[in-house]
Amino acid sequence: MNIIIYQLVNHGVDSGFLDKFKSEIQALFNLPMEEKKKLWQQPGDLEGFGQAFVFSEEQKLDWADLFNLNMQPPPSRKPHLLPKLPLPIRDALETYSDEVKNIAKILFAKMASALKIKPEEMESVFDDELRQRLRANYFPPCPEPDKVIGLTPHSDATGLAIILQVNEVEGLQIKKNGKWVSVKPLPNAFIVNIGDVLEIVTNGTYKSTEHRVVVNSEKERLSVAAFHIAGVSKEIGPLTSLVERQKAAFFRNVTTDEYLKGLFSRELGGKSYLDLMRI
């Protein structure tokens, strides 16, 4: 069941709200630098404005500005970030977070049905303790786009990523049959991408997708990715019924914290972290 990537159109989220949300994301990146500095990443923390997976001063960084924010469960939110955002942006982020979390839970349930397993088995990993991190991305135009990369090729290390393209500038590419293929954005559609954790949990039945972002020489590109992963007390590993059906476990079991600790100790690159999880 090797689903590459798909766009969700009939998702039930009001298009008027999505238009407002897009405007607020644009406003987020248009904040004055003095305001952005108050929301900058703290040492050892990826939340706020900044970059991700940076390990040395010599490292070539992605051509992008990022704003990372833990949104679910609500107690995981940092008091020095969300409350300090302008109220319209904060309200839009909170509503959006709840909407896409509900979509993620519905999709996990539908996947359980497609796999012909009990819903509670999938819910044992992805339940109300579901973690969600929002990452708003701003890719400025670059006069020499062939010399930079907007987002390094990688597969998402989470369960499901739900992505909204804020403006309709192409840039997202997926690797299909060894070649990079552009994803043409559809208005107000969600791009749904399977991550490494879901590949592990489904014992390789669903495959995560390697993807990257290229930049435009003339136009900026904005997007928001909502990453969903198992809660802090969960164990990440192949579901028992799938192991029994396939006569083998293809991935090892780890706690969510062990998984995330290993993830953020490595540079981003392809599906290399997933490969470490294989048996």
UniProtKB/TrEMBL annotation:
Pfam families: 2OG-FeII_Oxy (PF03171), DIOX_N (PF14226)
Signal peptide: none
Any one GO molecular function term: metal ion binding
Iron in keyword set: yes
Gene3D superfamilies found in the cross-reference section: B-lactam Antibiotic, Isopenicillin N Synthase, Chain (2.60.120.330)
Chain ranges of the Fe2OG dioxygenase domain: 130-230
SUPFAM superfamilies: Clavaminate synthase-like
Keywords attached to this entry: Iron, Metal-binding, Oxidoreductase
Recorded superkingdom: Eukaryota
Keyword Electron transport among UniProt keywords: no
InterPro entries named in the record: DIOX_N (IPR026992), IPNS-like_FE2OG_OXY (IPR044861), IPNS-like_sf (IPR027443), Oxoglu/Fe-dep_dioxygenase_dom (IPR005123), Plant_2OG-oxidoreductases (IPR050295)
Family: Belongs to the iron/ascorbate-dependent oxidoreductase family.
Protein name in UniProt: Fe2OG dioxygenase domain-containing protein
The organism's taxonomic lineage, starting at the top: Eukaryota, Viridiplantae, Streptophyta, Embryophyta, Tracheophyta
